[in-house]
Amino acid sequence: MKRTTKRMLIMLLCVVLLIAVLALFKFLQIRKLIASMPKPSPQVVTAMKVELQNWQPTIKAVGTLNPVRGVNVTTEIAGMVRTIHFRSGQDVKAGDVLVELNADSDKAQLAAQQAAADLAASVLARDRQQFAVKAISQAQLDADEADLRVKRASAAQQAAVVAKKTIRAPFSGRLGITAVNPGQYLNPGDTIVTLQTLDPIYVDFTLPQQELNGLATGQTVKLGIDAYPGQTFGGKINAINPKVDPSTRNVQVEATVTNPKRELLPGMFADVRIDAGAVEERLTLPQTAITYNPYGSTVFVVEKAKPAAAKPGEPAPKPEAATSGNGEQLVAKQVLVETGPTRGDQIAITKGLQAGQQVVTSGQLKLKNDTPVVIDNSVQPADNPNPTPQEK
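Predicted structure:
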């Protein structure tokens, strides 16, 4: 019995020893395989140092150009067009005659009523002489005076009708394109032509209520118009609506823009920019440097790699190929940042970076923590605070 137990223990020890030898052999094999695996190759990226720059806080909006004065010129009374005194697109002054309607019958009625008024005036003059010698009563004299006033009022009314047959420009401006022709019959309210005042011109836009603190009457605005790339038009805020729209929580703002060349036209779309507050200093980066994730915004900071410590009995590790100009090894480190407002190609960094740190501006999609990098700035991403889009 004792011999059997002893044999079993010896067999068990042999099995354990065999398993240990096999495990050691497998461990050494895996270690050798890991050591022979190629290390990740350096990734080529562009990078720049984040620096403090002057930053003018701005408020941006989308606006629509509207005329200071603009109407559809119409007629108050019906009539046949006799003469047109303007050309489409012509500049006119207030009071200039635009259209004359046929007023022959109205002028004839006016002449008849003026003649009746003149007769009533003569009758009143004779009756006053007769009243002086007590030949007529005071009642007759009063009736003559009333009749004269009525006939003069009728003549004045008819004169107003005749005057309405001559349609004049209500204010100075530029006429639009007309479809009215001589001989055409116009009804009251029919549009003859549009008339717009172009200098100055209004730009109307809305802003969220949280921007009210940065708005004030007289504040300067700058406009960008798609029709005139590269040009900026200046103006000033002349009115801020005293009521916020309860459905959108936006406030309407109106600014007056000088337009001496008549380049800006009502109905145009405008990019509005308002300088709000004093100039600040902020860390800036190209917007391409930011990687947006569900857990926050990140950038990759380029740092010097720390040399790996050699294990006892092993040779020192060889340096990587990713180096700076002076031979220093570089790696990328992912850093969480908080971003602020944007301007053009740039974005402000409010937290997470310090001035002087080198940040990857492109190529970060192929990086992860401690990835070796090589910096090649032969082509840099756009970093213009006021870019001008150009077709190529």
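Summary: Residues 316-322 have pLDDT under 50 and may be disordered.
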